[in-house]
Write a structure and sequence with these properties.
There is one protein chain. The protein has 302 residues and is mainly alpha-helical. It has 11 helices and 4 strands. The chain starts with a helix and ends with a helix.
Length: 302
């Protein structure tokens, strides 16, 4: 499978809302999702499975996962909450361990057995040393390798000089910072668009007038989204200078893209709830559809 398709499929899996039934959570394929319990939180989180995702993808599309905690710790951005998430069972294990140890300690203290008390003291301290080790955030940060200057220089000297022809880029370099965000929004929109199309097909199986109306709105959202993306890209590539007005125009296009994605996500969540609850009303879904129509009209006027 092409790398792009694999990445898109994995992002779709991570961003598709979970379905809840009988107090259990299921992913888009109906697989049961394990509950993660920490001291102050209970959550259902999809973990990245495909190694094709970069660290940035994991932080963006699965920020509450254990994999994201590992990335944050490795980059020096993590905290004790990330450590607890990775070692989710540690508090319960330590609790049982110390309760058991205290129960054993009572008769030993009463008997005043010094050797046994010394052993118990060591047993009390060992977990504390382990806790200090795992909560030392600096131990997770990956060490950067020093560049091998001599090797790289020798390699350059031994290689023949190659003259490269590079096409001139007349765009303002400072505006290029917007391109990454636009490209990421495109990927996110494509994933969420496919998810909502699948849900519409599941909830309003064609041929139905309601199905056709929903799909028509999604088609319009697709055209409008990419119109904003192309417009922003054209400004980036054609602007003669980086001015506040140019920045505002680009940001307005990006904000419109964000708004369309948010509306698609709201519709997706409402469809998931509606499908999960067989006795539910379609009124909320239709209200969201009206909101999307109003959004499309307002963006078009802009």
């Amino acid at each position: 499978m092409p790398i792009g398709n694999r990445r898109t499929r994995e992002i779709k899996r991570l961003t598709t809302p979970l379905t809840f039934k009988d107090s259990k959570a299921y992913d888009e394929k109906g697989n049961l999702i394990k509950c993660i319990e920490t001291i102050n939180d209970v959550r259902y989180v999809l973990e990245p499975q495909d190694p094709i995702l970069s660290d940035e993808d994991i932080l963006k599309y699965a920020p509450k996962s254990k994999a994201a905690s590992e990335v944050r710790l490795r980059k020096g951005l993590g905290n004790s909450g990330d450590v607890l998430l990775i070692h989710e069972s540690l508090p319960w294990i330590l609790g049982i361990y110390y309760v058991t140890l205290i129960c054993i300690s009572v008769p030993v203290i009463v008997a005043a057995n010094r050797l046994a008390m010394l052993v118990l003291l060591i047993l009390f301290i060992i977990p504390l040393v382990y806790l200090y080790r795992i909560f030392n955030l600096n131990s997770y940060v990956e060490q950067k390798r020093k560049p091998l200057r001599k090797v790289s220089i020798a390699k350059k000297e031994s290689e023949p000089a190659v003259q490269e022809t590079v096409a001139e880029d007349y765009s303002v370099s400072s505006l290029k910072r917007y391109e990454k965000e636009i490209n990421e929004l495109k990927v996110l929109f494509d994933v969420k668009e496919q998810v909502v199309r699948d849900l519409i097909g599941k909830r309003f199986a064609p041929p139905q007038i309601t199905y056709d109306k929903f799909i028509s709105i999604i088609d319009s959202s697709h055209k409008l989204f990419y119109k904003q993306a192309d417009s922003a890209t054209n400004i980036i590539n054609l602007a003669a200078e980086d001015t506040p007005r140019v920045q505002n125009e680009i940001q307005a296009k990006i904000d419109a893209m964000h708004t369309i994605i948010d509306q698609i996500e709201k519709l997706t969540n409402e469809l998931v709830i509606n499908i999960s609850n067989e006795s539910g009303s379609d009124e909320d879904v239709k209200n969201l559809l009206d909101d999307m129509e109003n959004l499309i009209g307002s963006v078009k006027e802009y």
